[in-house]
Design goal:
With 291 residues, the protein is an all-alpha fold. It contains ten helices and two strands; from the N terminus they run αααββααααααα. A two-stranded antiparallel sheet has the order 1-2.
Length: 291
């Protein structure tokens, strides 16, 4: 029987504390109070782009932060639960230490970006936002490593916890990852505008990157890393949500611009890939179950 691991207890509790702090900072930034000079949305309005979604699309942050809160609440229950080999949070360490360190780093970056955006430091904000997205990819990576190492054990002893990790952890992080990736492209578009590229050309560049990312992910999840990410299904809905918000705001049916047409094509593509992926998961689950 493995005893408590003080270090893992500390980093799990620190993960919760830094998340709670980030929620407070986000609330202050959204309202333009405290140390912030503007509302986050007001700065976005100043630096409008041709791919900025309608304001209501940003309500997805409520879904993201609620999902992540439920995820952390679930992780906290591990501190009070025993497994046949010891305490759930450390024996086995289904979510490795790297997951929690990446989470803490991510939340610090999250708060840093809000201050940079508020001060209109767009280049620095872009770098930080790209690091947020990158650290989110690390979170998915570490969660996959944990399940690769201990998924069979969970399936045998705690199958409900296996699905909790898939749904609460992996799909929750995937929503956050997808949205911050799209936000990075919007911030990138802003920087290109600031440095003289036309709004239309800058938006086209970012939409092209989004197209490449969507197609690359579709290839990887279906043909390269399926066994690790099979049940991550929240990426396409987020892409669809963002593109619908974009079309709602920027598409003029009487005179659609180049990027409006590009966005519609991307939206149709995402709407086709999502059910295809769900169908692939159902088919692979019946023909080649993971465990």
């Amino acid at each position: 029987m493995v005893d408590h691991s003080p270090f893992r207890v500390v980093i799990i509790l620190l993960s919760v504390i830094v998340y709670a702090t980030a929620l407070v900072i986000n609330a202050l930034a959204g309202s333009g109070k405290g140390p912030f000079l503007h509302k986050t949305g007001d700065v976005s309005a100043i630096y409008e782009t041709e791919i900025t979604p309608a304001g209501w699309a940003f309500s997805i942050w409520g879904v993201i932060y609620s999902w992540l809160l439920i995820m952390l609440t679930y992780v906290l229950t591990w501190l009070c639960r025993r497994s046949p080999s010891g305490w759930m949070y450390c024996s086995p360490a289904v979510l490795p230490t790297g997951f929690f360190l990446s989470w803490i780093f991510n939340m610090i970056l999250n708060m840093t970006w809000l201050f940079l955006w508020d001060r209109e430091e767009m280049v620095s904000a872009l770098v930080i936002l790209a690091l947020i997205a990158f650290s989110n990819y690390l979170l998915i990576f570490f969660s996959c490593c944990g399940l690769a190492a201990h998924g069979s054990w969970l399936q045998q002893h705690y199958p409900k916890d296996l699905w909790c990790i898939r749904i609460l952890v992996q799909n929750g992080i995937a929503i956050y990852t997808t949205w911050t990736t799209i936000a990075t492209l919007i911030n990138f578009t802003v920087v290109m505008n600031v440095y003289g590229l036309s709004k239309t050309d800058a938006a086209t560049v970012s939409l092209s990157f989004l197209l490449i990312e969507v197609l690359l992910w579709f290839f990887l999840e279906n043909f390269v890393i399926d066994r690790h990410v099979r049940y991550i299904l929240t990426i396409y809905p987020v892409v669809i949500w963002a593109l619908v918000g974009n079309v709602y705001k920027n598409f003029d049916p009487k005179e659609p611009g180049r990027n409006a047409k590009f966005t519609v094509v991307l939206l149709v593509l995402a709407c086709l890939l999502f059910p295809f992926r769900v169908g692939m998961v159902i088919w692979k689950r019946s023909r080649n179950p993971l465990m």
